[in-house]
């Protein structure tokens, strides 16, 4: 019997992610027979897992097998771990002129909207000269019926499998200002366009989708801490680092700068990066997305560990290669779809980012990410008194605001529990302070 149990665990771990993904999709007549098979297997697995739980053998191997299921957005972003709680699975397909576009998944992460689509086309589709696939574009989404401007957006295209010539995966990213999205999102509308000719300025084949997306679940696992660091470029421009945030999807550092008019051209001709590591030894890389006034350093590649105690970073400058034929106008830089390690200039010259010189500027800075402990809270209350405690007393610790209608700051404890401060105003003392330990017990500090 024991051998049979572990054989089941092995089979469970080999269940295809696509099977689980398809079982969540809307029912369509043309895929009914396939869907019956997939749903049947998924339900059978769920029943077997339930039976094993009742039998008392639901252990770490079963949990590991279940959490191995990935999503399309996770695959396209190259993010490991279980992102299912944060992603909305849509599965809405539309077909026009031999092209089928499927809106697969969406993810709203703070001020960033990720949209995963799948594009297929049949043999009847006639493509323009030299085209291997239809051109594809996604317009800025409408939020609550109004088009919301982005500060940055991009589309990455990639084939789902090797030697597949009639389909592509699409990942679109829309980045908004910190206050660019409304607090309450009642609906999102998006238009995708496919082009059969190389001229993207002409009207394409339009596909319209509407959906809902929430960022509440991800906010619960987002660590946020205020920082106060100043870094200077070689030209003397100061970059003020204001806040660090990271979770399982992204990490970013908000920044403001004091670029003067005469320095703008010099700054525009350079890219700025923060390179370093966290206390767990993970190599980190952040790229500055907006160089003028207010912007953000966005993580590229490995994210900080949720258990790290500090992050060490140093400003680096990269001179943007310019064409000899640029004249008095600046070249247009286009990041090739699906690749972050190549830059194509308007003059058709191609550069590898690895060949560019990252010049370190100034000293390294270390951003501490201390975790508060239950004993720290006890000591602070004993020293100041519960009635004299303020939000600022905990400002040095990373936290997440999970409140709706009022402020609810959640702080991870070193003991794996959570500290909560709640109140209606940050200018007045918290109304409640309590701890929920890992075992579920609650400790509330009475006034």
Structure explained in plain terms:
The strands form five sheets. An eight-stranded antiparallel beta sheet has the order 11-12-13-16-15-14-17-21. It has helices at 2-13, 17-23, 32-54, 60-66, 72-77, 216-220, 264-268, 374-384, and strands spanning 88-96, 99-109, 112-121, 135-138, 142-143, 146-147, 152-158, 167-175, 188-195, 205-211, 223-232, 238-246, 251-257, 270-278, 283-288, 294-299, 310-319, 334-335, 342-344, 350-352, 359-368, 400-401, 407-412, 418-423, 432-436, 442-444. It is of the alpha+beta class and 447 residues long.
Secondary-structure map with pairings?
Blueprint: H1 2-13, H2 17-23, H3 32-54, H4 60-66, H5 72-77, E1 88-96, E2 99-109, E3 112-121, E4 135-138, E5 142-143, E6 146-147, E7 152-158, E8 167-175, E9 188-195, E10 205-211, H6 216-220, E11 223-232, E12 238-246, E13 251-257, H7 264-268, E14 270-278, E15 283-288, E16 294-299, E17 310-319, E18 334-335, E19 342-344, E20 350-352, E21 359-368, H8 374-384, E22 400-401, E23 407-412, E24 418-423, E25 432-436, E26 442-444
Antiparallel strand pairs: 1-2, 2-3, 3-8, 4-9, 5-6, 5-9, 7-8, 9-10, 11-12, 12-13, 13-16, 14-15, 14-17, 15-16, 17-21, 18-19, 19-20, 22-23, 23-24, 24-25, 25-26
Content-based structural category: alpha+beta
The biggest beta sheet is recorded as:
8 strands, antiparallel
Number of strands: 26
Strand order of the largest sheet: 11-12-13-16-15-14-17-21
Query: Helix share of residues?
Result: 10-25%
Mean pLDDT: 75
- Report Rg: 25 Å
- List the uncertain runs: 1-69, 325-349
Beta-strand residue fraction: 35-45%
What's the tally of helices? 8
For the termini, the CA-CA separation is 57 Å
Shape summary: globular
């Amino acid at each position: 019997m024991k051998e049979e149990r572990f054989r089941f665990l092995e089979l469970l771990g080999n269940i295809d992610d696509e099977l689980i993904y398809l079982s969540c999709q809307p029912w369509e007549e043309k895929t009914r027979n396939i869907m019956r098979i997939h749903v049947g297997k998924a339900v059978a697995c769920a029943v077997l897992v339930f039976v094993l739980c009742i039998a008392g053998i639901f252990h770490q191997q079963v949990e590991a097998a279940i959490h191995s299921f990935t999503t399309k957005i996770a695959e396209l972003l190259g993010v490991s771990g279980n992102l299912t709680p944060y992603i909305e699975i849509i599965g809405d397909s539309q077909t026009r002129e031999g092209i089928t576009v499927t809106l697969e998944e969406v993810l709203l992460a703070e001020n960033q909207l990720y949209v995963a689509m799948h594009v297929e086309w049949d043999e009847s589709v006639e493509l323009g000269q030299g085209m291997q696939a239809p051109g594809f574009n996604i317009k800025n989404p409408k939020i609550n019926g109004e088009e919301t401007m982005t500060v940055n957006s991009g589309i990455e295209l990639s084939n789902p499998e090797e030697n597949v010539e009639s389909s592509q995966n699409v990942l679109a990213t829309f980045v908004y200002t910190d206050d660019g999205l409304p607090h309450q999102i009642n609906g999102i509308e998006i238009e995708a366009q496919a082009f059969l000719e190389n001229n993207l300025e002409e009207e394409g084949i339009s596909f319209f989708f509407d959906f809902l997306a929430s960022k509440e679940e991800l906010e619960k696992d987002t660590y946020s801490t205020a920082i106060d660091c100043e870094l200077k470029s070689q030209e003397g421009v100061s970059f003020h680092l204001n806040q660090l945030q990271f979770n399982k999807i992204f990490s970013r550092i908000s920044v403001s700068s004091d670029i003067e008019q005469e320095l703008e051209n010099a700054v525009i001709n350079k890219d700025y990066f923060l390179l370093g590591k966290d206390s767990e030894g993970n190599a980190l890389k952040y790229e500055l997305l907006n160089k003028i006034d207010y912007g953000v350093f966005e993580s590229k590649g490995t994210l900080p560990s949720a258990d790290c105690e500090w992050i060490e970073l140093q400003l680096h400058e990269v001179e943007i290669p310019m064409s000899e034929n640029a004249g008095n106008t600046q070249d247009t830089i286009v990041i090739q779809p699906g690749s972050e390690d190549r830059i194509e200039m308007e003059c058709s010259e191609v550069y590898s980012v690895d060949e560019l010189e990252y010049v370190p500027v100034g000293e390294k800075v270390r951003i501490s990410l201390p975790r508060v402990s239950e004993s720290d809270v006890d000591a602070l209350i004993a020293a100041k008194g519960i009635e004299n405690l303020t939000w600022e007393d905990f400002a040095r610790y990373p936290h997440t605001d999970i409140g709706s209608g009022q402020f609810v700051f959640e702080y991870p404890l070193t003991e794996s529990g959570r500290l909560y401060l709640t109140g209606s105003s940050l200018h007045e003392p918290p109304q409640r302070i309590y701890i929920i330990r890992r075992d579920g017990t609650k400790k509330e500090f009475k006034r």
